[in-house]
Amino acid sequence: MAQEKKKWFARPPKFGTRMIMMIIGVTLQGFGLCLLRQLNLGTDPCSLLTQGVEAHVPFSFGTCQLLCHLVTFVFVIRFDISYIGFGTIGNMVFLGYISDFFTWVCGKILPEGFFLSRTVQWGFLLPTLIVFILGAATYMCAGLGSSPYDALPFILSAHFPKIPFKVIRMRWDIAFMLGGVLLGAKAGIVTLAVAFFLGPVISLLEKKLQVFLREETPRAA
Prior knowledge:
Blueprint: H1 15-39, H2 45-54, H3 61-79, H4 86-109, H5 118-141, H6 148-159, H7 165-182, H8 189-213
């Protein structure tokens, strides 16, 4: 039997609901990322590398993140386009700019130096992590494609089946984290927290969100 051709930008059941979930998730993640950048206690490994790149080029964080994603996007197209979907574009193109937008808003409504206080930094840390991880989990659970950063560990795992996925993902995160540090970005407790807790939260939230994605059973005539 011929192998089924992999589809990209697929429209699974409950597509409208999934789109709403994806948009809400990316927006929440962008807001959380904005706060993480302000708290200066580290970010997720992907954003950490972006911050390192941002320190060396005359572009905004959002533009730098898009450029970094475009590099990894080439490999996703080359090796497995089935990971590409509306969620891919939502995260890859808009996440960094949403973070930039909320950073601009915070600069307008909050007093200067607000996030420099240790009380503010540690007081905002847990709520900010919850918002960021909840947003990331919601966008991923929508099932409309992954960002290139999230997709490539799965692609690598398929090509190296003898290596456990968690080992590949851990090495992937560490590589981006080290890249960011070498470029001058500051890793912190958030970098470790995202690496340890994002996976379990996604698994937990996926079960909760299935009620919105479950297909309705046709009524008997």
